[in-house]
Design a protein that fits this description.
Elements: H1 17-26, E1 45-48, E2 51-54, H2 66-84, H3 89-100, E3 104-105, E4 109-111, E5 114-120, E6 128-132, E7 140-143, E8 154-161, E9 167-174, E10 180-186, E11 191-200, E12 206-207, E13 213-218, E14 236-241, E15 250-254, E16 261-267, E17 273-280, E18 286-292, E19 305-309, E20 316-322, E21 325-330, E22 338-343, E23 353-356, E24 362-369, E25 372-379, E26 382-390, E27 415-416, E28 437-442, E29 450-455, E30 462-469, E31 472-480, E32 485-490, E33 501-509, E34 515-523, E35 534-537, H4 552-559, E36 563-567, H5 577-581, H6 589-604, E37 613-618, H7 620-631, E38 638-642, H8 661-664, H9 670-679, E39 694-699, H10 708-720, E40 727-732, H11 743-760
Parallel strand pairs: 35-36, 35-37, 37-38, 38-39, 39-40
Antiparallel strand pairs: 1-2, 3-5, 4-5, 5-6, 6-7, 8-9, 9-10, 10-11, 12-13, 13-14, 14-15, 16-17, 17-18, 18-19, 20-21, 21-22, 22-23, 24-25, 25-26, 26-28, 27-33, 29-30, 30-31, 31-32, 33-34, 34-36
């Protein structure tokens, strides 16, 4: 589950007797039946609006109960013994380790001439934060999270340098938990100050420009119950002054009358304003508030909060400002996104000025670098970065009287080769847009893929970004905003030759006639005879776009003879607001239909066949896998549901689950209960059905999608499975929802995943 901070989505209807019979006939294998750990069936029955729903494995929700721990140990023992019999596993792990062992880097961010970026030499469990004290200075280690724990399970989950570059505020999380702890490090000495801030969750970090403190968000410390599974409500925005204990932190904003609201505070590049983005769960719609800090050098933290946009009718994302003109990205009256200029002196909507109009492509984010607005667009699910330059009149000082004067701020075809390094020319300056902005060309990218990071600030003469694609390892670039020159900042060297492979983008038709894109990566010249092992991966929810990216694990899959396919399902953000809304609430079934149609397309076009087709998804994508495998057990040769939301009737009762009701709905609502029950994976497992070979994944410290979802799903599947296909679960210890997972755990997990597929898809791989 992701929050924009991040969260996720789900889906599944009841099976007909015909499908159950078809599943029994087509999905059976020659596996010997497994003897599953005992799981007592309780008598728990819940009433939902007059409908009785049994929940016999409710006791597995209590992750700390002795009975649950015994069951977990037994399940892991069964899975380990099963995987140990697969002779290819050792070779798979060896190749994965070799592929993973390459230096990789993040795009740098700057503060007062210092450059900060992450590096992993290859097999380090966690990436190390480096700093350069100038453009030509040698990098030095500033913070190595590998020293914070012996097993690599303490991860850096957030960093932010003060405006003068002297301090680094950073967040750490333990065992993959969403809970964070903040510390402050002196960049000059590399040593921590005494500051410690606890019970932080779903928070950014943003310094005031006097360099004396930062804003962050947190919940009150839990006083009872299970701190991992307790519901999180009443988010609060605080200010921490360096050198003071957390008990003296200043409460900046909270809303006891709105316990489901979440607050994110960001100081503008000129240091003049605190922007407070107010969100409600994972609803993409937001409110926009601000505080005028008066003087960046002496900010007034306790100035009143101004509710600039105080209605939940659209997404509003702050881009930047020129004095009292705020630039805001919104989908208000523009489903694919536009940027408007709002004068805070006269913010009525009829006075908003569109400075970047809606285009045919989805505008997914925007920022300011130098004097340009940088728009990050998705064009058929791949990145297009476009510049827009404002006229001098549009940038004039409009600060209210009495405040100090502001200083001038510092598709080539359906088949593409994403290993190409051929230059792409920037487009010529075009016509003027509203408010004096004009298109100013595009960022030259090395091919069709994804720009994952863009770091630049107002007044800068450079920006840094990362680029990746299925066959293009993540590479960081520097773009000179004045000369328009692109150069490599850091490039990885992977023990992999991409030239024998290619990625194709196809479009297929879903059940209701909707045209859906899908990326398919294969070896060049592959025989389309239905015999190719294929891994189909998707997500489909919460406005999250799944775009091309490089993965050492996926490279190993390709080398083993596999095909990797990624459809861009409805529910995501690839085509803007309408695409997202077509896969949420009562329309969730569209997401499952899109995924099933992708599988049917791959089979029809003879890329693969049912016995050779595996599906995978995590979080909301785990729900997706759970939904389609219960709706169409006849269609797949193996399934890999990972950290999935499997009980759609109870997800809102744990941690941040209530926040997902914007996409899912809630069983507390009688009408929404009907469609949730219709596709909830747990409630749609049917006794007497032969389900595909399944290896589920979860983690004992997952406080996003609590492990009880997968525990109950697995116990039910094992009890109701009607054939010898294995139903197994891999329960990671000292790990959470996925963020910050150590490299060693990632490699072990990928080795188990592919070993399972080698056995169940009857593969005969060769290894490098």
């Amino acid at each position: 589950m992701r929050h924009d901070f991040r969260t996720s989505a789900l889906h599944v209807p009841a099976l007909s007797l015909l499908l159950a019979v078809a599943g029994t006939l087509s999905a059976q294998t020659t596996n010997a039946p497994l003897s599953y750990p005992a799981a007592a069936r309780g008598t728990q029955v819940d009433d939902y609006h007059g409908t009785s729903i049994a929940d016999p494995y409710r006791w597995l929700e209590d992750v700390d109960a002795p009975a649950t721990k015994t069951w977990v140990e037994a399940e892991n023992g069964l899975t380990d013994s099963f995987l140990a019999t697969i002779p290819e596993r050792a070779a798979i792990k060896t190749r994965l380790t070799a592929l993973w062992n390459y230096a990789r880097y993040s795009a740098p961010f700057k503060a007062n001439g210092r450059y900060f970026y992450f590096q992993n030499t290859g097999l380090q469990n966690q990436s190390v934060l480096l700093v350069q004290d100038g453009k030509s200075a040698a990098p030095r280690v500033l913070l190595d999270p590998n020293t914070l724990s012996a097993d690599g399970t303490v991860a850096l989950s957030g960093t932010e340098a003060s405006d003068d570059g002297r301090y680094l505020a950073y967040a750490i999380s333990t065992s993959g938990s969403d809970w964070q702890e903040l510390h402050v490090r002196d960049v000059n000495t590399g040593r921590d100050l005494a500051d410690t801030v606890k019970w932080v969750k779903f928070s950014g970090i943003s310094w005031t420009h006097d360099n004396k403190g930062f804003f962050y968000s947190r919940y009150d410390e839990p006083t009872s119950g299970n701190k991992m599974t307790n519901t999180n409500r009443n988010h609060k925005l605080y200010y921490h002054r360096v050198g003071r204990p957390q008990s003296r932190d200043e409460l900046v904003y909270d809303r006891p009358d709105q316990p489901d609201w979440l607050f994110d505070g960001t100081v503008t590049d000129d240091g003049q304003y605190l922007i407070i983005t107010v969100s409600q769960g994972t609803d993409v719609r937001t409110r926009l508030y601000f505080i005028d800090l008066d003087n960046p050098g002496k900010p007034q933290i306790d100035n009143p909060v101004v509710r600039l946009i105080d209605k939940l009718d659209a997404e509003y994302s702050f881009v930047g400002n020129r004095a009292t003109n705020f630039y805001v990205r919104t989908d208000r009256n523009a489903p694919k996104g536009r940027i408007v200029s709002i004068s805070i002196d006269n913010p009525r909507e009829e006075r908003w000025n569109t400075i970047v109009p809606e285009s045919k492509d989805a505008l997914v984010s925007a920022s300011i670098a130098g004097d340009d607005i940088v728009g990050n667009y998705l064009q058929d699910a791949h990145s297009s970065i476009r510049f827009f330059t404002g006229s001098r009149n549009n940038q004039r000082d409009q600060r209210p009287r009495g405040q100090p004067q502001q200083q001038q701020p510092r598709n080539p075809g359906s088949i593409y080769d994403d290993t190409s390094t051929a230059p792409i020319s920037t487009r010529e300056r075009s016509q003027s847009l509203g408010g004096g902005f004009t298109p100013h060309g595009e960022l030259p990218l090395p091919g069709i893929g994804t720009v994952g990071e863009i770091h630049g600030r107002q007044g800068d003469d450079e920006l840094f970004y990362s680029f990746t694609s299925f066959l293009y390892p993540t590479t960081t670039y520097r773009f000179d905003l004045k000369t328009q020159q692109n150069s490599v900042f850091r490039a990885p060297r992977v023990a992999f030759d991409p030239s024998p492979y290619e990625t194709r983008q196809v479009f297929y038709t879903s059940k209701d006639g909707t045209r859906v894109p899908m990326f398919i990566t294969t070896k060049k010249g592959i025989q389309l005879d239905g015999s190719n092992p294929t891994l189909l991966y998707a997500y489909g929810g919460f406005n999250i776009s799944i775009t091309p990216s490089f993965s050492a694990a996926n490279v190993a899959w390709l080398e083993m003879g596999g095909i990797y396919a990624v459809p861009n399902l409805r529910g995501g953000g690839e085509y803007g607001k309408d695409w997202h809304e077509a896969g949420m609430l009562a329309k969730k079934q569209n997401v499952f239909d899109d995924f099933i149609a992708a599988a049917e397309y791959l089979i029809k076009e003879k890329y693969t066949s049912t016995p050779k087709l595996a599906i995978r998804g995590g979080s909301n994508g785990g729900l997706l896998v759970g939904a389609v495998m219960t709706q169409r057990p006849d269609l797949f040769g193996a399934t890999l549901p990972e950290v999935g939301v499997m009980d759609m009737l109870r997800f809102q009762k744990f941690t941040i689950g209530w926040a997902w009701t914007s996409d899912y709905g809630s069983s507390d609502n009688a009408d929404q209960f009907k469609y949730l029950r219709a596709y909830s994976p747990l409630q749609n497992i049917k006794p007497g059905t032969c389900y595909p070979p399944t290896l589920a994944f979860t983690a004992d410290h997952d406080d996003r999608v609590v492990p009880g979802h997968t525990f109950k799903f697995t116990a039910t599947m094992q009890a109701d499975q009607a054939c010898a296909n294995p139903i197994l679960v891999r329960i990671e210890t000292k790990a959470g929802h996925g963020a910050g997972k150590p490299t060693t755990k990632q490699i072990d997990e990928a080795a188990d995943r592919f070993a399972f597929l080698v056995k169940e898809l009857h593969m005969r791989p060769t290894f490098q």
